[in-house]
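Batch manifest, entry 17 of 40.
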Amino acid sequence: MADTSGTQLRVGRLLKAHGLKGAIKIELYTDDPDRRFVPGAEFSLQVPGDSPWHGKSLKLRELRWYNGHAVGFFEGVDDRTEAEGLAKAILWVSHVEEEAQEDDAWYDHQLIGLAVIRDGERVGEVSHVEHFPAQDLLIVKTGSGEVMVPFVAAIVPEVDLAAGTVTVTPPPGLFEELPEAEPAVETAPAVTPVETAETDAAAPAEADRDE
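Output type: structure tokens
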């Protein structure tokens, strides 16, 4: 896995092979692909530990666009089989402090330690960040343990580095256990007036027989 301790920035994910010559479709995680994906750009790879690409990097030869999708050609990836072996790999680039930060993009070291605020109250702090192909997760340390918070705008609407806070609007049950629904109480069926009348009429007859 790439070093993501604050010197790396996640910029894309390789999706699947495109054609027969080693090209790979790319899901971009950057608002500035013209700056990040230039010929010669080098990317660290986040891949499973048993992948032959583990610990290696990729150098971009060319980025093209097909039907609105980014497609990359990389050095050393020359056929479809090699490209398929890179599917789902996440691309990281070295971060230079002087670079302008992209909108809605933060580095792990900026997020770790931020107070997590819910409804105006502090509920914990960010202990670390987990990166997955589908989305990132903020791991929040609370008084009752760790909570995994999807790092998406609907749940994390605001990150305020100056204030040192992350505002969350989680769905019910993410930070607390929901109360169990009470079981329905069964009630005996009501006795209808007809049944009552029949019972009352039968009572004198029984009494007469006893006599």
